[in-house]
Amino acid sequence: MADKKDRFIVTTGEPVGVIAAQSIGEPGTQMVLRSFHYAGVASSIATSGLPRLVEIVDTRKKPATPFSYVYLKGKAAKNFEDAEKVVKKISEVRVNDIARRILENFSKGTILIKLDDQRMEANELTAKGVASKIEKLTKIECSASENAILVKTHTKNTKQIRSMAVQIGKLTVNGIENAGRAVIKQDKETGEFYIVTNNSNLVGILGIEDVDSSKIYTNDIFEIYRVFGVEAARNAIARELDTVLREQGINVDKRHLFILADAMTLSGGIKNVGRRGLSGEKESIFARAAYEETVKHLINAAAFGERDDMRGVTENVLIGKQIMLGTGSVTLAIKKEDLAKISEKKGKK
User: Fold this and answer.
1) Which residue among 69, 74, 87, 113 has the highest number of C-beta atoms inside a 10 angstrom radius?
2) What residues form DSSP beta bridges with 184?
3) 348: Cβ contacts below 8 Å, ≥ 6 apart
């Protein structure tokens, strides 16, 4: 049986936080500020490199370029026609996407939406169906002709009519709201079809029958947190960090990434690593002051009589004291008898 010490993943006293910070921070500062074209969604530029790394550690509420991977099950995963049906259920179509022009008539208080026949046909929509959807969402009277929709605003206020026209243009008339445009991709290894969207709405997408809920993924960490919980968000943070680093040709041990992800999600939510998150909420006064807003933290601590027990790394380094990790984590003791023998030997020399 192996010795118990050999089974330890990390040596006792190892400063894992400092090593993780060095392992992520050092290569992170050398990243190239560039973006790449995301092949899954046409006309979508996915943020990568340092901007994406900053997005993750700063816990931005919404990524600059959100996207989702939607995996299918059953026949839809292997049959293109069935997969295409799922795409049409997901792909978001707004009034602006199917309208050639939206004209406001301020004297009559109406809005005329001239529809694009080709776009309507591609999305299998009818003018009557779109008018019904607009009327349902806005509670405003609509009437449809062959290729146009007339919206009666019942007001002649220019500002209100213009505001209504803008709002109507943004209405989702088909697909899932905020899911974005969806395209079909095929896995080269398995041959199965999956869908990529240039936005994210997990709740809406999960409601579709042919979607495999166990494989769905988005780069929007906060949406993963809201839908699947904090453990899923923790895994997503580590995965996104790993993806960003590997895209730049940087290989960082995943254990370092999970330490950062654990620290960010320890409270049950998601916190950034800056002054309004982990660094700003440290128990140690000196540790908070060493990061940012030094004078503010010291004045507040003095005003409220705070006490610093000097247990962490930063505060001990700051005052030149040995940290309680590594060699500083152990205390050596010696028996009096042994000390006497050593002193006796020294005396003879």
Assistant:
1) 113
2) 195
3) none
The whole-number pLDDT of residue 339 equals: 84
- pLDDT tens per residue across span 58-70: 888 888 889 999 9
Instruction: Copy the structure tokens of residue 268.
Output: 């049950």
Q: Which domains does the chain have, with CATH numbers?
A: 16-32+46-60+219-265 (1.10.1790.20), 68-91+179-217 (3.30.70), 93-174 (3.30.1360.140), 274-349 (1.10.150.390)
pTM given for the model: 0.79
The amino acid sitting at 152 is K
Q: Which residues of the chain have pLDDT under 50?
A: 1, 34-44
Long-range contacts at 280-289 (CB < 8 A, ≥ 24 apart) = 282/312, 282/314, 283/309, 283/311, 283/312, 284/308, 284/309, 284/310, 284/311, 284/312, 284/314, 284/315, 285/315, 286/310, 286/314, 286/315, 286/318, 286/319, 287/312, 287/314, 287/315
Please state the φ and ψ torsions of residue 105, each to the nearest 5 degrees: -115, 100
Q: Kind and range of the H or E element at 114?
A: strand 110-115
Predicted confidence (pLDDT) per residue in 199-245, tens digit: 989 999 999 988 998 889 999 999 999 999 999 999 999 999 999 88
The position carrying tokens 């990390």 is 10
Locate 185 and state its tokens: 């991709």
Who contacts 23 (Cβ-Cβ below 8 Å, separation ≥6)? 252, 253, 256
Token code pair at residue 42: 């046409």
Cα 211 from Cα 90, distance rounded (Å): 10
Distance CA 293, CA 301 (A): 13
